[in-house]
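Forum: Protein Structure Q&A
Topic: Joint prediction for protein chains with partners

I've read a bunch of threads here and the consensus seems to be that you should model interacting components together rather than docking separate models afterwards. I'd like to see that in practice. Below is the full input, 595 residues plus whatever partners are listed. Could one of the regulars post the assembled result?
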Amino acid sequence: MTASHSKILQVDNVSKRFGGLLALDRVSLTVAPGEIFGIIGPNGAGKTTLFNVINGVYPPQQGRITFRGEDITGLSPFKASHRGIARTHQVVRPLGELTVRENVTVGACYGRENLPLEKAEQVADEVLDFVGLTARKDMLASKLNVAQKKRLEMARALAARPILLLLDEVLAGLNPQEVADMLTVIRKIRDQDVTIIMIEHLMHAVMNLSDRVFVLDYGAKIAEGTPQEVSNDPRVIEAYLGDPQVARRFMEGAG
Amino acid sequence: MRSFRNLSFWLILLVVALVALLPTLADSAALPFLTNAATMRENLFLLLMLVTLASSINIIMGYTGYVSFGHIVFFGLGGYFAFYLVQTYSVNVLLAALAGGIGASLIATLIGIPVLRLRGAYFALATIGINEAMRAFMNNFDPFGGALGMFFNYAVYDSYGGAKNAGELAYYAMIAVTLATIATSFLIKKSKFGLGLLAIREDQDASQVLGIDPARAKVIAYAISAFFPALAGAIFFFKNGIIEPGIAFDLQRSIEGLVMVMLGGYGTVTGPIVGAVVYDRLRSALITSPPITLGSLTVNLSNFHLVVAGILLLLVVLFVTAGFVGWLRNRFPAVRRFLE
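Posted by a regular:
Agreed with the consensus. Here's the joint model:
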């Protein structure tokens, strides 16, 4: 394996500040092609900000982002999309007055392959089939329920034929059956050689799916490694549960 | 160019063309029951102009989601450019109109680059400001006649075979412009570019993440939507023989254009056409209706159309946001394929 093959995305010492809040504090990470890279952390840890910096919604104040060997720091989101970075939003953003099929066609038209309309519609139909929304394709996107809107976000991102897919809490708000369906979809995407970075609060899902997990707290990395390594890391437990010493003493006291 | 294979594309153009050619058919005695062909042609000329204006506004407002309140500025600019070329350099009116259209599109591009960064009400306000500024400028711009404007010497019409023939030329030119506007509107709606505009209208930030360059797409849409009103303005003022700032940059006409778009259904191809027809008929019915006497009170309805326009706009925005065609499309999904 050559160096450029061992990493598809490299985030180097990236910081992002909103006024007095340091949302990202010198974050560095490396993602290998074909892996599922999980990002976890308490609310407000800076996970979504990290996505926003990667796909160009905000430029970072400091640091560098390299995608497939090219510097993409501060590149606008539509250019990131053309290069093969697609994402879903934590708070779904359907194009409400367009049909489900039109929504997905937008993704195919303006994504990495820059397809003409007719070809894009074919891709949209394939992707709708893949995520199981074919029956709803002529509905207005605003009329979908939450689980369907999450699938739509996913379909739109996939229609762009991305190299790197950023999934921002696609499982949040879904019931157990819907979560199971979505996990199947995510595995199938990985099998198509798409690299995935996923932000997720649902621990069992991240720990099951991810090849590696990255833990963010107060904008900084506190741990990184395989799911087992991370779940045994005292700093991670502290970030989620508070002070482990206190937690243990509390448990002893109760006993 | 899938639209050329679309039945409704040809159907819309055919209906508009047939209606527009009614006076001509009446003249040739093919339709003996139509006796007032001259009046009809005058009415249809104005109606076609309104359809052009409303359909153009719809491209930036209905497809892209940017309410261009002062869109009439391009009508005025096209009128002024063409009028000046015809009067001063004896340029053929059709060429002059084309030059006016291109000029208006260029100005729209220059204005659009900074102004289309604004969103929502701020953009709408900015376009009113542009229109008012342009009127103030023309009021003080002596080469274009300042506040008095410009008027033709009747000799101008001689090269078109007299005033009557010039009027006919203007009529057919207006038909052509209207058909071109509707065709363009349809082609955009059904194209990849148009899909991008709709995505921007629905959620500009999401559209950008999906790979659309909103800044570029919006400026192109704005330039296109400026082109056709300018052509219409050029032909209207050529036929009129007089142009002055008050008529060229009449904000009231701009607002009426918005009412037509909302009434018929924003974001649809046929909506602005339907809206223009309904509004125009309503206006002329009110203008020609006799005063109403309520006891000791006499109400003259001739200026009442603006009151009606205001009420209609309010009702549409409150209860049928999608407008007439939009409502039909939502209520009966089966008509979607035929009614764009």
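Chain B touches chain A at residues 2, 191-192, 195-196, 198-199, 201-203, 205-214, 267, 333 (CB under 8 Å).
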